[in-house]
Amino acid sequence: MTIVHVAEGIMEETARLLTSFAAAAESEGVVYWFGLELGELAVVTTLIVPDADTSTGAVQTSAAVNAEAIGAVAGTPLVLLGQAHSHPSRWVGHSSVDDRDTFAQFPGALSVVVPYYGRHGMELASCGVHRHIEGTYRRIRDTDVEEHLRVLPGVRDMRDRTRPQGRRRSGWLERLRLVFKGGRNEDR
Length: 188
Prior knowledge:
It is a single chain. This protein is an alpha/beta fold. The chain has one domain (3-152): Cytidine Deaminase, domain 2 (3-Layer(aba) Sandwich), CATH 3.40.140. Helix content is 22%, strand content 26%. It has helices at residues 8-21, 63-71, 96-101, 171-182; strands spanning 3-7, 30-38, 41-48, 79-86, 110-114, 128-133, 136-139, 149-152. It has an eight-stranded mixed sheet with strand order 7-6-5-4-2-3-1-8, with helices on one face. Strand 4, helix 3 and strand 5 form a beta-alpha-beta unit. The longest helix has 14 residues, at 8-21. The chain starts with a strand and ends in a 6-residue tail after the last helix.
């Protein structure tokens, strides 16, 4: 089965988008994950937030709304890999409604359930990872999540903050600068 990879920044943005559904009133949210499938691995590159009906506090999407989401990536190599949706509490299982109404209903689709409407971020250890296997969604054991979903590092600022910042000249460049400054080539 394909292993889906997602960068930390995509995870963070997914949590932020899920939280936005609960800003005006307590409501679950949903974000579709699109990306590239490359043999035995896939990479989430694009988030699409459908115009979901959340008036009941749960998420519902119509065929038209889902078609609009697919249309947003038409003509690109992107495919639907799965979705993330939020729950109001720490329970991150799939309900029978989730099993039946989740848009991504194809073998290998991912459904990541994020607790507390995403307000505490999206650490995989606190999420429920579900995979569409043999016609239904199955919760993946925490010990097996890496076989299905892996988080890639995002931005890493590796600068040494203990040394002075700004323009630094290498030794040979500094010597060259001094030669020109003291000689006839000072204007150059």
